[in-house]
Amino acid sequence: MRRGRRPKWMLKIAEERIDILFNKADDELTRHPERSNRYVEMARNIAKKYNMKMSSKWSKRFCHSCYHFMKPGLNCQIRLSDSSVVIKCLECGNINKIPYMKEKKERRRRKIEYNNTSKKGINEQIIINNHHKHRKIKNK
Ligand SMILES: [Zn+2]
């Protein structure tokens, strides 16, 4: 097979397939851990084949040493250090650090926005509260 970038539509399909595989890995982890690890392997193979970077959403969900799928509270430990998220894989003990400056900035921005809206009055706060309620219901 030729090397280099594939057409956009092909990359999009590959991305979708990776997404599906990781979602399945997430589903199967508690019941069939070996299956979920196989899904991770398949997703990695697709990414390798199409020469694409795994999206950050998924790349922090598996161990980069033993390639097990990780779920917080089940087979990985998450700690916050100064400016990074430290993810420890409990399968092999590998430690993965992800800097979270971006998230930190985002949170600071949201805080400022919240303060601004709370100053505007009670009515707006009620709207915000309702919005949260709707989101909760949706998540269920
Ligand atoms: Zn590991």
User: How many separate domains?
Assistant: 2
Give the CA-CA distance, first to last residue: 45 Å
Shape assignment: globular
CATH T-level topology of the largest domain: Single alpha-helices involved in coiled-coils or other helix-helix interfaces
- Please state how the strands of the largest beta sheet are arranged side by side: 1-2-3
Biggest sheet statistics: 3 strands, antiparallel
Bound molecules: zinc ion
State the low-pLDDT regions, or none.
none
The fourth-level CATH homologous superfamily of the largest domain is Immunoglobulin FC, subunit C
What's the helix count? 5
What gyration radius follows from the Cα positions, in whole Å? 20 Å
CATH level-two architecture of the largest domain: Up-down Bundle
CATH C-level category of the largest domain: Mainly Alpha
Helical residue percent band: 55-70%
Please write out the topology.
Blueprint: H1 8-28, H2 33-49, H3 56-59, E1 76-80, E2 84-89, E3 95-99, H4 101-120, H5 122-139
Antiparallel strand pairs: 1-2, 2-3
Helix pairs in contact: 1-2, 4-5
Bound molecules: zinc ion.
Residues 63, 65-66, 68, 89, 91-92, 94 line the site of zinc ion.
Summary, kept brief:
Keywords: Cytoplasm, Endonuclease, Hydrolase, Metal-binding, Nuclease, tRNA processing, Zinc. The chain is mainly alpha-helical and 140 residues long.
Core attributes:
2 domains, 3-stranded antiparallel beta sheet, binds zinc ion, 140 residues, mainly alpha, Single alpha-helices involved in coiled-coils or other helix-helix interfaces, 5 helices
